[in-house]
Amino acid sequence: MRKIVKILFILGLISSVNYSENDMKIETSNNIHNVEVTKSDGSKIELSEYRGKVLLIVNVASQCMYTIHYAGLQKIYEKYRDQGFEILAFPCNDFGGQEPGTNSEISEFCSLNYNVTFELFDKIKILGNDKSQLYKILTSNEETGLGDVEWNFEKFLISKNGEIVKRFKNHVEPTDEKITKLIERELSSN
Predict the structure, then answer these.
(1) pLDDT per residue as tens digits for the range 67-87
(2) Which of 31, 95, 98, 156 lies in disulfide reach of 162, CB 3.0 to 4.6 Å?
(3) CATH number of the domain that 57 lies in?
(4) Which structural domain range is residue 181 located in?
């Protein structure tokens, strides 16, 4: 009798876990152009608006040990923007509450401390059930495989046609040759 109760208990636990097929599958498309995102002013934009530009998408935070990456991001933005390069920065509070500010406070912080001129977007969720569609694609595709972002300032390089080229962990500086050489390669491609 005890064995039957234990088995029923275990089966009850297993059946109470809700896994969806979407939680464990790789997106069939590596392309982000069909995704709509929200700008820091609240307006919506389709990422297809950036067709023809090389993008670096980054989840950012103001109170993180990697916040200094804003300086490197601004440096590469200034170097490559006139060649068709854009940085899309998505503030995120998913890691240790390191981005508690409002969009206005985040923008002011970036401007005052790092002279940021690249695009800052609305605060975004990149983990869990509320993960944005953009980060669902970025973290589960044929190029980057399956795997959540591990911390702030993880970077994704996107080709001119919206395809994911490469993923860089947060410890890779924006000015690292691993990133800049790929930016240059993508900028010179048709």
Answers:
(1) 999 999 999 999 999 999 999
(2) 31
(3) 3.40.30.10
(4) 20-188
- Indicate whether 141 belongs to any domain: yes
Q: Give the number of other CB atoms < 10 A from CB of residue 10.
A: 10
Into how many domains does the chain fold?
1
Q: How far is CA 170 from CA 23, 42, 71, 102, 154, in A?
A: 23, 27, 14, 23, 4
Q: Which of 130, 131, 147 is nearest to 139 (CA)?
A: 147
Q: How far are the Cα atoms of 37, 101, 117, 118 from residue 108, in angstroms, in the given order?
A: 21, 10, 11, 13
Cα 91 to Cα 64: distance, rounded to the nearest angstrom? 12
Q: Residue 79 domain-assigned?
A: yes
143 falls within a domain = yes
Type and span of the H or E element at 149: none
Q: Which residues are catalytic?
A: 64
